[in-house]
Specification:
The protein has 128 residues and is α+β, with helices and mostly antiparallel strands. It is 24% helix and 27% strand. It is built from four helices and eight strands. Strands 1, 2, 3 and 4 form a four-stranded antiparallel beta sheet that branches. A hairpin with a 2-residue loop joins β3 and β4. The N and C termini lie far apart (49 Å).
Length: 128
Amino acid sequence: MTGSGTKLPEGYDPRVREWYKSVKASGKSGVTDAYIDATTQKLVVSVMAPIFKDKTFVGAVILDISLDALTQAIANINFNGGFGMLTDTKGIFIAHPNSTMLGKELKSTAPSIAEAVRAKNEGLVIRR
């Protein structure tokens, strides 16, 4: 069960999840890329931190943050015919006005925009 009382799916083992492996390997707090949560089936990012006892890793704590409001706000942006979109650090769409684009790679759908984003690394990229 989770801290909110939500029952976890049958067979759920956090030790095989990427977030758990990441925090265990690094021994540091972190934030994941966006992913579909096993419990809610919603797009989330997770903030995680290791738990140590006498300098030995004994587990991890995680907080999932739903991206519903953020993705909806970005998908509703209109720049005089243009639109907003958001990708994670791997270039996977997590917000786009066309929902069929969610989960797809920017570089495979719009290589020139992917290159412009890669070159700038962050911020606003305007393509005409």
